[in-house]
């Protein structure tokens, strides 16, 4: 299988989609390099993977810091000799109506959801260009495909990631660097994302919706594995995934 022995970096790896993806890929023989801010959860995930016979290392990573992303790439090279895949998955969703003027939260979303992706690219693209291969996978959102009241800034960051990834795909093809891309647009997935919402009305409505529809993050992990598992000459670059019953 194409997943086996690939060195896969994951940001936002300590819970939710990142944790589920790390667990699945490790079971398929990938070598995991895990980044997130919470060391206790990273340790627990690393230990669970190695206990089951997998390979994983971790480093505390704040994706808003360029140097943290670069250190994660260096960790991958030191421990496993290369980087094959980067899954830029860290994200925040403190949604609220624009009229609430929660500008601090707006800036946090821009810093993590968009600049975090750019920082990851800055760290890994030199490696991918030099080896003329690589795979960039990002977590966008269905809010990166259509507009939702209460989610203007979150959606703006996810639309930006969509455009960024499409241009990366085209430029890679033009430049002959053989960098594959995949952008994932999840709907209601059971993660910790809702815990960042501070606006009470928005939190109440979003929690009720997720309680009705949400599916597990392992569903997204399956999509990530599918994308990686394709032949190197094949790029499957966009996936929308959500509950069958949710009219997103």
TrEMBL record:
One of its GO terms (molecular function) is oxidoreductase activity, acting on the CH-OH group of donors, NAD or NADP as acceptor. Pfam families: adh_short (PF00106). It comes from the Bacteria. PROSITE patterns: ADH_SHORT. Keywords: Oxidoreductase. Residues 6-185 form the Ketoreductase domain. Gene3D superfamilies: NAD(P)-binding Rossmann-like Domain (3.40.50.720). InterPro entries: KR_dom, NAD(P)-bd_dom_sf, Sc_DH/Rdtase_CS, SDR_fam. PANTHER family: DEHYDROGENASE/REDUCTASE SDR FAMILY MEMBER 11, DEHYDROGENASE_REDUCTASE SDR FAMILY MEMBER 11. Belongs to the short-chain dehydrogenases/reductases (SDR) family. This is SDR family oxidoreductase.
């Amino acid at each position: 299988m194409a997943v086996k022995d690939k060195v896969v970096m994951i940001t936002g790896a300590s819970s939710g989609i990142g944790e589920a993806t790390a667990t699945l890929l490790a079971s398929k023989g990938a070598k995991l390099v895990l980044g997130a801010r919470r060391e206790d959860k990273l340790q627990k995930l690393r230990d669970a993977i190695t206990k089951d016979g997998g390979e994983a290392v971790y480093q505390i990573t704040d994706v808003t810091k360029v140097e943290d992303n670069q250190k994660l790439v260096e960790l991958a090279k030191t421990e496993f000799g290369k980087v094959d895949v980067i899954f830029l998955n860290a994200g925040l969703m403190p949604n609220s109506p624009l009229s609430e003027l929660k500008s601090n939260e707006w800036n946090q979303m821009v810093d993590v959801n968009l600049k975090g992706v750019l920082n990851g690219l800055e760290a890994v693209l030199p490696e991918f260009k030099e080896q003329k291969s690589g795979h960039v996978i990002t977590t966008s959102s269905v809010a990166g495909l259509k507009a939702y009241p209460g989610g203007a800034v979150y959606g703006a960051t996810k639309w930006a990631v969509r455009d960024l990834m499409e241009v990366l795909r085209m430029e890679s093809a033009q430049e002959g660097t053989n960098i594959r891309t995949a952008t994932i647009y999840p709907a209601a997935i059971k993660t910790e994302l809702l815990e960042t919402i501070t606006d009470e009305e928005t939190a109440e409505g979003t929690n009720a919706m997720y309680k009705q529809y949400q599916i597990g993050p392992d569903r997204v992990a399956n999509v990530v594995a599918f994308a990686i598992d394709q032949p190197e000459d094949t790029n499957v670059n966009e996936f929308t995934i959500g509950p069958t019953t949710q009219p997103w």
